[in-house]
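# step 3/5: fold
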Amino acid sequence: MVARSSTWARDSISNPGAIAKVLGIETEYGIAGGPDYDPITSSSIIVNAYAQQGRTRINWDFEGETPDMDARGRVDLTSFAPVVETHLANTVLTNGARLYVDHAHPEYSSPECRTPLEATLYDVAGEEIMRRALGIANDALESHQAITLYKNNSDGKGNSYGTHENYLVRRDLEFAHLIRAMVPHFVSRQIVVGAGKVGAETEAALEKSPAFQLSSRAEFFEEVVGLETTLKRPIINTRDEPHSDAERFRRLHVIIGDANMSQTATFVKLGSSALLLAALEEFGPDEFPAMPRSPVHAVRAFAIDLSLREAVLCDDERSRSAWDFQDELWNVASSYVERTGGSVVADETEVAAILLQWRELLDGVRDDRRAVADRVDWVAKLRVVEGYQERYHLNAHDAKLRAIDLQYHDLRASHSLAQRVGLRQLCAEGDVREAVHNPPPSTRAYFRGQCVARFPEEIVAANWDSVVFDVGEGPLQRVPMLDPLRGTHALTAELLETSATASELLAALDR
C-alpha cells in the first residue's frame, strides 16, 4: 500500500494557545429482542440493514488502531485495553460517520464536527439513522423477532455501555494538568446534563438504596485515571489514540457521560467541556477549582443527591457541592470567553448560547426545576416517574418505574417518553435529515463522506485519518488526513466536483 501526501493535509493550526475544539460523540445503543435474543446478531442486523439500504459497504480500516496506548507513557499492567473486534459489522456512512457493532451493541460514531452545536446536530442525526435502521431491520424480521433500540447506558442488570465524547487538544498539554482541571467538571456536570436513573445496579450504589439518581452512568466508575472503558472505568480515560498527527494533537476520550435525549443537554455537555479545555490550554490549571479528595466518592455521592447540597472535601481544604463546582467552572469559562472571545470553540453567537444555557440550567436545577424540565433530562424523567408513582400508588422501588425509565430512552416515536415530555429542540428537522446523508462541511469528515458518496466502488476502506482507494491499477492508494481541519468543504469541494472518477481525484491530489 502506497502512502500519499496531499496539498490539504498540511499544518492548519499555528496558535500557540488553545486550538480548535474539533469534537464528536460515540453512542452505543441498548438493544433488545431479535433472533434468539442474541445481541451481537441483532446488532449486526441493524448495521447491515442500514448499510445495504444505503448501498454503501465501505469497510473500516483498522490500521493505526492503538487502544493499548496510554497517555501516561507507560504500560499499566493492571489494566486491559479494549479489544478491537475486526470481524463484526462495520461501515462508513456518507455523512462521514462510522456505524458498527461494538461488543454487543450497535454504535454510531459521529463525524468530526467543528462546534458543539454542529456536533449536537450530528448526534441527533445518529438517532435518526438508528431509527431508520431499526425500521428496515424489523420489516425483514418476523414480528416475534422484532428488535428495540434504546439510547441509554445500562441494561438494568449491572451492565453499562457508553456514550463517549471526543475533543481535540494540544499534544503538549500536560496530561497531569488535564486531570487536575477536568476531574472537577466531569464529577459534577451530571447535575445539569445527567440523564437520570430509577434505582441502582452496582453493589456500591445498592447499599445506598437510592430511588433515583441524577446520572445513569455515575455508579459504574471506579477509578480516577485509567485505560479501560468496560471494567474499572476511570473518570479520566488515558487512551492515547489521536486519529491525527500524534506530534501535534491529542484526542481526549471522555467516557464519563450519559446518553442524553435532550438536545440542549447534549449542547451544554459538549460546549461546557470544550470551553473549559480551551481555557486550560490558554491559561493553565490554576484557575480551576481544586480537585475533590476522593473523586470516585464525589461522582457517586453527587449522583444520589437530589437536593444538590452534598459537599465533598477538596485538595484546598474547602468543601464543595456539585453545584459549587459547576458555578466556579462556569465562571472560569465565562472569564475565558471575556478575555479571548472563545473563537476556537465556536463563533460569538454560539459561545454566548453555551454560557447562557449552561447558566440557566445550573440556576434552574437549584431554584426552579420546572423552568428547566424542557432541557434537563433527569428533571424531565423524574417528573414522569413521580407522576406515575403517585397516580398508581407505587413504592419508590417498584419495577414499573424502571420500565418508565427505559421507555424514556426508547427510539421508537410511538413508544418514546422523551418525545412526549416537551423537550426543547435545537436542531430543525430539515437540518437533521440533511445531516443523515451529508457530512459536516467544517472538518475532514467532509472529504471522507463525499468520497464514500461519490466513489463507493473504488474505496476499499476508510477510517478517521485516511481513505484507501483501489482504482483497479497498481497498488492500493491511501490518502492520509492527519489534520482534522483539512479536507473541509472550503478546501476540497471544487477538487471533488471536478474529479469525475477516483483516479482523477488521486491524480489531482498528487499535483
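# step 4/5: annotate
Residues 116-139 form the longest helix (24 residues).
# step 5/5: archive (pending)
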